[in-house]
Automatic annotation (TrEMBL):
Keyword Protein transport part of the UniProt annotation: no
Name recorded for this polypeptide: Carboxyl-terminal processing protease
Keyword match Hydrolase: yes
CDD domains in UniProt: cpPDZ_CPP-like, Peptidase_S41_CPP
Transmembrane regions: 7-25
A cellular-component GO term for this protein: outer membrane-bounded periplasmic space
An example Gene Ontology biological process: signal transduction
Gene Ontology MF term list: endopeptidase activity; serine-type peptidase activity
SMART domains per the UniProt record, alphabetical: PDZ (SM00228), TSPc (SM00245)
Length: 529
């Protein structure tokens, strides 16, 4: 089991590090007056830096020393209190702001060339004439083609201030073109999928809790209710959190009266309660919430409130276990401290925070341990039920102190994927193949008006699989003898990728969820209520 999961660890590690950087904001933006005023008395740290500045034998960057000193101080605190250099602060704010300044394209590096895989409708790039399939050769004076280029490098080159122009040299149909694009605000939705599973049950997936998440949620609920929504599957898997107030507002739409949603408290932060304030849009319909080990912070606030009040059935795996609240305190040089100021507690008083007294490494390694020791595959209630018991209004017993345990456990799929097929996924061969298939078969895709009609009529096993077998041979992978079940899983994933190119994330999840064990469990549970 451990060997089988080793191939996933690099990706999972990246996801959790992202969580560590960006989850848990209590407030938005900067504190007033640029932070705290100095007392006028110098500290030993300031004195040491001044001595180094005046007396050190070589030239030295005092700003760098100062930043490193602050970073080390933050390392002595909890795992989620960190120092944010100016560029990291900007990226963190953009991550949750609901928009950024750019050109409105998505791209993927295939072999050594950056390919445009999506052009935002009515965005700057569409207005400039860019199309899916265009290959970016150069951005201004920076050559991209013919060398390995990181996604961060491309992002930094094409993003910039609203109103400024970036010149892209592209390759289209073997012709080089120079296309000037005027940057503008680009929306970044946090609600990535919303659709009706059947005549009664709807599905909503929240990627994070950004500044516009509640508005996006309400707009989606309005559309789903028009289509007959009486049951809802709310998918918070992989949602690392974000703005706490957005999670609270969404909880208010599910809970009646003035029920307590969450309260916060810290040594220097008095207890503060957050309660429901208004009639909700979905206070009585059947509700299930999907979670996993990467559901954290604001996701756990929402999930914990719904579980404590017996309002929803929680399905999936134990959540991350982050029960700390951070605030941003700006520094004079444009950097900031993201400092933990309080803990949050569910309505019953549960703290969801995992212990971190053994250090940051042990704290983060807990996630990998769940994969290595089988907790991600089998129910692990014994891992978190050693603390105080809490009783819900219906009499159910809950526990705190290590993430939220689901009411119904669904482990990771143990179906075997061969090393060869895994290699094709991780080296980009699968997405490369599907992308070019889409470019070559856009006329074939035109008659499909929705992911539902696409899934009913399109058979990837017949249309895509034979071509993919030929493509895999370029990577010296022979797929002619793999088991039929594995062929079906890979074909379904390729079909979902194809749907993403035509209908974006909503199409991707509509296809993927047809075989998703957790979604299927949720739908089955709703039918038994």
């Amino acid at each position: 089991m451990k060997k089988k999961f080793e191939v996933w660890l690099p990706l999972l590690f990246s996801l959790v590090m992202i969580i560590g950087m960006f989850i848990g904001y209590k407030l938005r933006g900067a504190q007033p007056n640029g932070g705290f005023a100095k007392s006028g008395r110098s500290t030993s740290l300031e004195e040491a830096l001044e001595i180094i500045r005046q007396k050190y034998v070589d030239s030295v960057k005092i700003d760098t020393l100062e930043a490193n000193a602050i970073r080390e101080m933050m390392n002595e605190l909890d795992p989620h209190s960190i120092y944010l250099p100016p560029i990291d602060l900007k990226e963190a704010n953009e991550e949750l702001s609901g928009k950024f300044e750019g050109i409105g394209v998505e791209y993927n590096q295939i072999r050594d060339t950056v390919n445009i895989t999506y052009v935002l409708k009515d965005g700057p790039s569409e207005k400039a004439g860019l199309k899916i399939g265009d290959q970016i050769i150069r951005v201004n004076d920076s050559l991209l083609a013919g060398k390995k280029t990181t996604s961060a490098t491309v992002r930094n080159l094409i993003r910039g201030e609203k109103g400024t122009t970036v010149n892209l040299q592209i390759l289209r149909n073997k012709a080089l073109l120079t296309v000037p694009v005027v940057r503008n605000n680009i929306p970044t939705p946090t609600l990535v999928a919303s659709y009706m599973i059947d005549q009664k049950a709807g599905y909503i997936k929240l990627d994070k809790f950004g500044s516009n998440t509640y508005r996006e949620f309400m707009e989606a609920m309005e559309q789903l209710k028009k289509q007959g929504l009486t049951e809802l599957v709310l998918d918070l898997r992989g949602n690392g959190g974000g703005y706490m107030d957005q999670a609270i507002q969404i909880a208010d739409e599910f809970l009646s009266g003035d029920k307590l949603v969450v309260f916060t408290q810290g040594t220097n932060s008095p207890k503060k309660e957050y309660r429901c304030k208004r009639p909700g849009v979905f206070e009585t319909g059947q509700l299930t919430v999907l979670v996993d080990e990467l559901s954290a912070s604001a996701s756990e606030i929402l999930t914990g409130a719904l579980q404590d009040w017996d309002r929803a059935t929680i399905i999936g795996r134990r959540t991350f276990g982050k029960g700390l609240v951070q605030e941003i305190f700006p520094l004079s040089d444009g950097a900031a401290l993201k400092l933990t100021v309080s803990r949050y507690y569910t309505p019953l008083g549960r703290s969801i925070q995992r212990p971190y007294n053994k250090g940051k490494k042990v704290y983060m390694d807990d996630i990998w341990e769940r994969y290595a020791n089988g907790q991600a595959y089998f129910a692990d209630s014994n891992k978190v039920n050693n603390g105080k018991q809490y009783k819900t209004p219906s009499g159910r017993i809950l526990y705190g102190g290590g993430g939220i345990m689901p009411d119904i456990f669904v482990g990771l799929d143990t179906s075997r994927i061969s090393k060869e097929v895994n290699r094709l996924f991780f080296n980009g061969a699968v997405t490369d193949f599907v992308f070019h298939y889409y470019l070559d078969h856009q006329k074939v895709m035109e008659p499909y008006t929705s992911p539902r009609s696409f899934s009913q009529d399109f058979d990837p096993g017949k249309t895509m699989w034979p071509l993919f077998v030929t493509r895999a041979q370029k990577d010296t992978v022979n797929l002619t003898h793999i088991p039929e079940a594995e062929k079906l899983r890979v074909s379904n994933r390729m079909e979902a990728y194809l749907a993403r190119f035509k209908w974006r994330d909503s199409g991707y999840y509509q296809i993927l969820n047809l075989t998703d064990s957790m979604v299927l469990k949720a739908v089955d549970h709703l039918k038994t209520k």
